[in-house]
Amino acid sequence: MNVPVYNIAFAAAAACASGMSNAFATLGKKTNVIVYAGDGGTVDIGIQALSGAFERGTDFLYICYDNEAYGNTGMQRSGATPLGARTTTTPGGKLRPRRTSTASSRRITPPTWRPPAAPTPSTSIRR
């Protein structure tokens, strides 16, 4: 199986996918572009790139691995860290304070984006 893989700055994942999708379309090649990014690179520093890709109607599959922290920087708090969770950047102290703000929505789909689908699979949801 011949699959090209690009390791890029995680904040720019959606922007790179948009460029690659458009380049393949210009060349007349039907290619599936898949992004696999973490929640920090999705709901925090990568949200503008993701928003731009959706606004342009980029044809790609975006998979957000939500481990609820920045895994590449030692599990620092991200916008997807749930209320009450502890991370390596949770302040210490006698009362052991926890995160007090709510996490970003797991489904990041403002109405103006109109993606063709926005599934939210999770191993933590029991049926």
From TrEMBL:
InterPro entries per UniProt: PorB-like, THDP-binding, TPP_enzyme_TPP-bd
GO BP, one annotated term: sulfur compound biosynthetic process
Location of the Thiamine pyrophosphate enzyme TPP-binding domain: 11-94
Low complexity composition bias: residue spans: 100-111
TM helices/strands, residue ranges: none
UniProt keyword annotation of Oxidoreductase present: yes
Stretches for region Disordered: 75-127
Keyword Repressor recorded: no
GO terms of molecular function: oxidoreductase activity; thiamine pyrophosphate binding
Keywords: Oxidoreductase
Subunit structure and binding partners: Heterotetramer of one alpha, one beta, one delta and one gamma chain.
Name of this chain's protein: Thiamine pyrophosphate enzyme TPP-binding domain-containing protein
Source organism (scientific name): Methanoculleus bourgensis
